[in-house]
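Friendly challenge for the regulars: who can give me the structure tokens for this chain first? No prize, just bragging rights.
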Amino acid sequence: MTLEVVLFIVVGVGLTFTALAALVLIVRGPTILDRMVASDVLLTTVVLSLGADMVARNHTDSIPIMVAIAATATFATIVVSRYVKRRTDSDLPQATEEAEHV
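First reply, four minutes later:
Bragging rights claimed.
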């Protein structure tokens, strides 16, 4: 085996391990924020896999797909963080009112 083949095997194993770990955290994650970070890791792993494929096959056809995945991940992160912030903000007055009654 050449050095190039060994490097691609190492990259493939690393990306596979990362994707599986992210999937486990998406399924088991205790909070929505943990799941969101894990989904970002998974999407980043997909983008890295596409980049590795472009290097291996010497093409640039996957760039639009990579940009779309990155934009989707960014937009999803913003949406989830705003949702969590609103949910947290709506919980604050209730906690303050309960503290005053005690």
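DSSP finds three helices and no strands in the chain. The chain has a mean pLDDT of 89. Your move, everyone else.
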